[in-house]
Amino acid sequence: MFTFEPNKTYSMPPFFGGAEFNPNAEGRVNDSVEINFTQITDGNRLADYLPKGFILLKPELHICFGQYRQIDFLAGGAYNIIRVTVPVYFNGMRDKLVGEFNLVIWENKTAPITGGREESGMPKIYADIEDFHIFREKYFTNASFEGNTFLRMEMINPQPIQGQWLKEVRANHANLNGLALRYIPKIGAPGADLIQAALYPASAKIKSAWIGKGSIQWTKLTSEQNKHQAHIINSLASLPIIETKPAIMTKGILSMKPITGRVLK
What we know:
mainly beta, Acetoacetate decarboxylase-like, 54% strand
């Protein structure tokens, strides 16, 4: 009969064996390129998405496209990611910290989705996400599902960030607190078996950075086009945009540290 060993960690399916717990383990992305977009929107609308304990700090929607290559935990493989977050303060009974609350994370590979979803509490779902296209001073990409494009992201005329400004960008990426709500639904019944606020730490060593004009374009979809995601996409597409700030592109090394994550209380 299969039995769990208390000193090991397990993933689905668990009965083939677990791994020794390593408190120093991290997921290293040796070639990380990200473009971060910031949009000013209605703070009251954003706050409606936040669970109890999370306080909105700014009426900002942060949308990040990441192109990750040379990934250690994928044997040198790659994937792309789109994170939609808002800046928050978590005011718990025990924990009090500032971070980015993840509303939704799209990724185009199964392994990082399963590793970061139920196991770490991040709201990861699948999408087809194009690599960067670079054409005449324009960086652009798009995300789609089953052939239906729902998001296009552009950065135009990027200019290098240098000096003190680059130091500030590096400092802002030295410690990254990814926050989310871990939700495990019941089987065969309404409601949840588990609801927890979760912390997913990360850090980045930024080698270089650029700034340019940013553009975000959502396309609403019907439930027939995207049954499981249309309500997410359409909610984000319906937010009123007051201003789109310049986009920031960074290149460097990203260290994901889920093993040091924890349940927030």
